[in-house]
Amino acid sequence: MADLYQLREAPEEPLDCIYILQSTDSDPIDKLQFTAKERRPLKAKAEALGPRGEAGELISGECPLALAHRVTFVGVGDERELSHSKLREALGRVMRQATKNREYQIGLGVPVRVNGLTDAESRAFALLEASISDYTFDHFKSKKNEFEKIDGLHIMPLAGESEEVLEQRLQRVRLMRTAKQLARDLGNRPSNDLTPDALAAAVKTMTEEVKGLRVTVLGVKELQKEKMGGILGVSKGSIEEPRLIVIEHRPKKPKKSVVLVGKGVTFDSGGISIKPAAGMGWMKYDMCGAATVVGVMRAIAEMDLPIKIIGLIPAVENMPSGSATRPGDILTMANGKTVEVDNTDAEGRLILADALHFAARFNPDVVLDFATLTGACVVALGHEAAGIMGNDTALVESLRTLGEQTGERVWPLPLYDEYLGYLKSEWADIKNAGNRAGGVVTAGAFLKQFVPEKVSWAHLDIAGVAYHEKEHNGLPKGASGFGVVLVSSFLENLLS
Ligand code: BES
Ligand code: MN
Ligand code: ZN
User: Fold this and answer.
1) Contact between residue 28 and residue 51 where contact means Cβ atoms under 8 Å apart
2) Is a pLDDT exceeding 60 seen at residue 464?
3) Which of 208, 323, 363, 374 has the highest CB neighbour count under 10 A?
4) In this predicted model, what pLDDT tens digit does every residue of 233-290 receive, in sequence order?
């Protein structure tokens, strides 16, 4: 991906093109940091080209400044209706246009604000999206599209935005981008490449690249010792051994303690309760919750947050075979509860349950879990927000608010006690699946049974937002890296 710079003065070599986003409401040039000498010719040029800022507009001409060869105005429409999606789509158009024109060094001015956000919030979103909008996953392609890629992205300062402030913003963007890219890459890797053990190896590699993380991997023996019947039960049908990956960030004097749990099903065939063939390939994305946790751990280590943060990733492959767990089987979980496996396709909650119980030993104040848990969540919210449930309304509300800011939205769903009744088992303490009613919330109710006592907990069902089957709102096909920015911001905010 392109290197990020700030564009203060004319570079030695003129840029290939500067792109200026424009709404229908105001003059974009006034809102960017130009000297009076630059402003006049640029305005004259704009006048001559006559862009109106309408959504989808791309109007290009020779650049009158020494800065660049060309200038392109990119319309975003009415600024009062500018959403995260619309801005992301406009930024995507910039990168596509530059790639098509073989422009390698480009400038970017974003003098527009997402409706409802502060300048700082909008800036954080826009700069990150711009810097990640040329993301592609071509690891398995013989022919890379490397040479068409943009080398340098030069951000034009806003009027009044000091060099110091912009540099701080870019620094955070660089680190968030790397973390989000890592989450996408992990998500996009196919299941024969990213097995549970390979996921553990990828985490180890990541922790060697940054300071401040330690990783421990529990294998079959250790899982047996911990009596993790959920993780062992789900993985029984696969030749790939399960892992519990523990990533620890332990600063000297931590202000808080947080555990993040991510569902790491590297492939979900459904097991004996096998899924239909059509679309089954998408279940390579069933470890996106784990990917979010890995991305966040990377980001917070780089930020060196003074919070104890533990990432827990139960990693398994859910397969049917002669050794697989069957519907009707009863598993004894790490916390001693017994679970009747009514449907082997409700595997995520079984592995998360053991990991949630394991979280207790880190004395967390807050536990968050991330999982592509239910198709029902996709039915309820589509691809526009993750479902969020929990035992602490203030926690849920703070994540919802942050979701609106970061564009990684979450929407609350209830966890009424009555839902537990939907999971009554004749033979065991609880069964792992109800009937169709309340598919999202019964999964949440199940997890709640395994959450350590007296901790604030929230469960994020990311099934609809973790990956996309085709390009969506300017997000690429495949893994989105959902949650990395939301959760990193949440953790930063815990300090204030
Ligand atoms: N991984 C799936 C959920 C899923 C579905 C994620 C669609 C992304 C897109 C999960 O393990 C699953 O199969 N859930 C079942 C639960 C049911 C059997 C109670 C479901 O949602 O159908
Ligand atoms: Mn499943
Ligand atoms: Zn699954």
Assistant:
1) no
2) yes
3) 374
4) 999 999 999 999 999 999 999 999 999 999 999 999 999 999 999 999 999 999 999 9
- Residues 139 and 216 both lie in one domain: no
| pLDDT tens sequence across 167-211 | 999 999 999 999 999 999 999 999 999 999 999 999 999 999 999
204 labelled catalytic: no
Ligand with an atom nearest the CA of residue 469? 1
How much distance in Å is there from the Cα of 449 to the middle of ligand 3? 19
Residue recorded with tokens 């989000």:
180
349 is catalytic: yes
Cα 374 to ligand 3 centre (Å): 7
Angle 403-485-383 (CA atoms, 0-180°, nearest 5)? 55
* Total domains present in the chain: 2
Q: Based on the fold, state whether residues 239 and 122 are members of the same structural domain.
A: no
Instruction: State the closest ligand 1 atom to the C-alpha of 376, by its place in the atom list counted from 1.
Output: 21
Give the H or E element holding residue 402: helix 393-406
End-to-end CA distance of the chain: 33
- For 189-228, what is the HEC assignment? CCCCCCCHHHHHHHHHHHHHHCCCCEEEEECHHHHHHCCC
Are 300 and 421 part of one and the same domain? Answer: yes
Domain carrying residue 466: 181-493
Domain end (from 132, 161, 190)? 161
What's the confidence (pLDDT) of residue 144? 81
Whether the model clears a pTM of 0.90, i.e. scores above it, the answer is yes
> How far does residue 320's CA lie from ligand 3's centre (Å)?
14
Q: 317 and 437: one domain?
A: yes
Looking at the chain, the whole-number percentage of residues with pLDDT higher than 90 is: 96
